[in-house]
Amino acid sequence: MRKYDMISALAEYTAKELVRNEESWRAYLNTASRLYKYPFKEQLLIYAQRPDATACASIDIWNEKMHCWVNKGAKGIALIDEDGNTYSGLKYVFDISDVHKARRIGRFPHLWEMREEHAEAVLDRLERIYGETDAEAGFTERIREIAGRIAEDCYKELAADMEYIKEGSFLEELDELNVEVRLRETLADSISYTVLKRCGMPESILTEEINFPYIHEFNTVETLAQLGSNVSDLSKLSDGTLWEVKTAL
């Protein structure tokens, strides 16, 4: 079997595994929260091959921009080359754990760590975009309020698209209203989880706070891709704001 076919099969298998239960979806979101710059399909394959990855880049970026060299024996993470730039149909990225800095000129990307003193700056920047939240509530509740607004703004359009691809999934027999409810709540909770995990919230606390009771119903590659791509894109809006806070501090 060609390597491309193996990676394609891995992507399909992993997609189905993600929605087996809430724990599987959380495990994926833990990885995705660290790799917010990547689209869903690439997050999926990075998770499948290296769930503990923290910062990935191509060998060109590591070499030319960061002046870091790939460790001997390191194995690249294979991704589907959607742009068709490679003969094999694949491209490869390496995690930060796979490289080392060149003497004097090498540098690693700065991995932002959320601190308590950053909370107000994060909320302030998010509220400028998404509106004010309940000032009496805690950080987690305010992030969830913002995530709910993001999901509210787009779930109807996404649910309409889901009607065309839900065949074969557990969503198939549901009417439009019930599909909308499941999509809105799963979107809001997934965005909340991703952003809060990126802010350093422990998984044990997030597990108590956020549940995904409908995730098993997105049990086809098509419905999961629709959900996952939008979670990735919509979380990226908030994570972009975290990046702005990071660079401003």
Overview of this protein structure:
Helix 2 (22-32) crosses helix 7 (176-198). The chain has nine helices and five strands; from the N terminus they run αααβαββββααααα. With 249 residues, it is mainly alpha-helical. The chain starts with a helix and ends with a helix. The longest helix is centred in the C-terminal third of the chain and has 28 residues, at 221-248. It has a three-stranded antiparallel β-sheet. A two-stranded antiparallel sheet has the order 2-5. Helices cover 55% and strands 7% of the residues.
Helix content: 55-70%
Query: Mean pLDDT, nearest integer?
Result: 91
Q: Spell the H/E element sequence.
A: HHHEHEEEEHHHHH
SS-based class: mainly alpha
Radius of gyration: 19 Å
Number of helices in the DSSP assignment:
9
- Percent strand equals 5-15%
Could you give the distance between the termini? 50 Å
Count the E strands.
5
How do the strands of the widest beta sheet line up side by side? 1-4-3
Q: Segments where pLDDT lies below 50 for 5+ residues? A: 245-249
Major beta sheet summary: 3 strands, antiparallel
Q: Which outline best applies?
A: globular
What would you say about this model in short?
With about 250 residues, this protein is mainly alpha-helical. The protein has helices at about 5-20, 20-30, 40-50, 60-65, 120-130, 140-160, 175-200, 205-210, 220-249; strands at about 55, 70, 75-80, 90-95, 100.
